[in-house]
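Throughout this chapter, every protein is written as a compact record of paired, labelled lines. An example of such a record is reproduced below:
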Amino acid sequence: MRSKLARTIGLIVGTLAVLVGGVWIGQGAGLIKGSFMTGSPTWLAIGLLCLVVGLFLIFLTLRPRTSGGSRGDR
């Protein structure tokens, strides 16, 4: 992700995925009541997956840019 717009979008989407994943984990674990997802291991697993994907996207977005050289040069 090189452009500022792509980096901003990646950061927003990653952050939303982390937040939604956290809510789904809470519901799946039974910590957040009042939903059909409450106490469901399926939503716990989906929340964990969403959280990991969001964290990975944030990592890719925030990592330092590499130099423009190609890998084949030695």
